[in-house]
Amino acid sequence: MGQLIFIGLGLHDHTGISLHGLEEVKTADKVFIELYTNLMPGFSTERFEKTSGKRLVTLSRKELEEENGKKILQAAETGKTILLVPGDPLIATTHVTLRIEAKKRGIETRIIHGASIISAAIGISGLHSYKFGKSVTIPFLDENPSETPYAVVAQNKQLGLHTLCLLDIKAEQKRYLTICDGLNALLDVEAKRKQKIVTTDTLVVGVSRAGSDNPTVKAGYTKDVLNHNFGQPPHTLIFPGKLHFTEAEALITLADAPESLMVTAE
Questions:
Q1: pTM of the model
Q2: Which of 210, 208, 247 is nearest to 228 (CA)?
Q3: pLDDT tens, 218-236?
Q4: What is the Cα 218 distance to its own chain's centre?
Q5: Nearest residue to 208 (alpha-carbon basis) of 224, 230, 223
Q6: Domains of the chain listed by start with CATH number
């Protein structure tokens, strides 16, 4: 019986994979990759193939989700098979289902973790990781005009917790929700609910291209962040809850937040 190894590629380019992960790729019988769950702006299939000495087989969302990973499971039944995934292999993806199916078929599975946007965005913001509540994804409004993100931000704020908002991605269509899109979506819900959860005077942190050599981090009030140029995607949003004074200092020093944050910090 073969094995299926899930390997994280990290956040930006072909150098984000761990040395452990790269060594496993070099000794694999078959290497698959999916690039639809996240955007890796600097990733080059050609450069990765040159570095690893292996040819990559790109899988579509349909092949992994609608067809239940049939191709990769067939390969894993007879040899050492790898699935390369942006970020961390089983964070913010649907690949747990694939691992469960492999286990049912008696295929050994292993995971080699990579950097995740969840830890990277939190870390680069300067906020304390243990003060984050439930995370949420803001979807494209034309496909899913959901009010759930607003409700999650509201719930976390009541508890004094920060909220990480992932922004929807349709990599196969080259569509990426921006910080401006996400904020406007929440402001639309605010106009209906009027609970003062996300207003033009709400503190927010925008992060773009975390994990790259040129990330952008800007903290400020919604009206100011809306006008900030965050550059190319991927983008991420954070809504802070109650701030410790060291968090306020980090936002001011590292993310150009207003000095007035120190007045209300604990």
A1: 0.91
A2: 208
A3: 999 999 999 999 999 999 9
A4: 18
A5: 230
A6: 3-112 (3.40.1010.10), 117-264 (3.30.950.10)
